[in-house]
Amino acid sequence: MSCIFCEILKGNLGCHKLYEDESVLAFKDVNPKAPVHFLVIPKEHINSVEAILPENMDIISRIFNVINKLAKDLNLSNGFRIVNNCGEDGGQTVPHMHFHILGGRSMAWPPG
Ligand code: 5GP
Ligand code: ZN
After folding, report:
1. Is the CB of residue 37 less than 8 Å from the CB of residue 16?
2. How many domains does the structure of the chain reveal?
3. Cβ of residue 94 lying under 6 Å from some atom of ligand 1
4. 84-109 per-position pLDDT tens digit
5. Which one of 17, 93, 101, 102 would you pick to mutate in the ligand 1 pocket, going by the greatest count of ligand atoms within 8 A of its CB?
6. Which ligand does the CA of 17 lie closest to?
7. pLDDT digits (tens, 9 = 90+) for 31-86
8. Is residue 90 included in any domain, yes or no?
9. Cβ pair 103, 80 in contact under 8 A
10. How much is the pTM?
């Protein structure tokens, strides 16, 4: 199965990398919906939040640790939005779990 984020992780597709460690990658969204819009993904291919199990749930805290670090580095001190689209009704288009971080403007609620 080909996965566009796994292709980025393998280096076959470029990205604007913001952070990387042994288990997490963060990069700018190619189609930004806010002045700051980046994605944080596990290096392990996990389809969606629905596939988070006791065996792999440690990645969620690693991802949120990176979110906090980048929010500070990118001066999102006035706040930001974390979005996870899960499955078809959730609007997920890339089947590799990812968290969107949006900032640099105020966000509407509820989402459409
Ligand atoms: P989803 O709709 O699955 O929640 O979000 C997928 C996100 O991935 C979209 O915001 C889309 O702009 C972004 N995206 C899709 N393909 C690429 C790519 O090749 N590079 C980057 N940097 N972002 C991508
Ligand atoms: Zn993948």
Report:
1. no
2. 1
3. yes
4. 999 999 999 999 999 999 999 999 99
5. 93
6. 1
7. 999 999 999 999 999 999 999 999 999 999 999 999 999 999 999 999 999 999 99
8. yes
9. yes
10. 0.98
